[in-house]
Amino acid sequence: MKFLIINGPNLNLLGKREPGIYGEENYESLCARLKAYAAAHGSTAECFQSNHEGAIIDAIHAADGAYDAIIMNPGAYTHYSIAILDALKAVSVPCIEVHISNVHQREEFRHKSVTAPACVGQICGLGLYGYEAAMGYFLGKQ
Ligand code: DQA
Known about the structure:
alpha/beta
């Protein structure tokens, strides 16, 4: 399978950013790990990160027909980006939403995802493993 891993705002600062919540592993290490996981399962994973809503929307549009599945952590856009919700609805490539932290144990504004309704499902609170769990789900569906 061809996976596109999309990470939204501030996730480029993994490892440095609130390590008590998001862990000590950095973004480059996460990407290397996901590429290795994909390769071990006869698949490929491309990693894309942006702090800009429009760039994420462009990446979702470009993924249509080019990738088999999207694994996306929209960061804070999760909670208010109707534009990302609409982009997911506009394409036929399936997406699983991932959150590193358990958003339900955090501030109330993080409990609501506006983007999850356009996703196959949502994984949260499993740390970086959540991205692999999402890939594993799609691999098992083949
Ligand atoms: C996050 C949770 C969001 O509420 C937050 O804005 C993030 C990261 C997570 O992975 O736990 O940037 O998506």
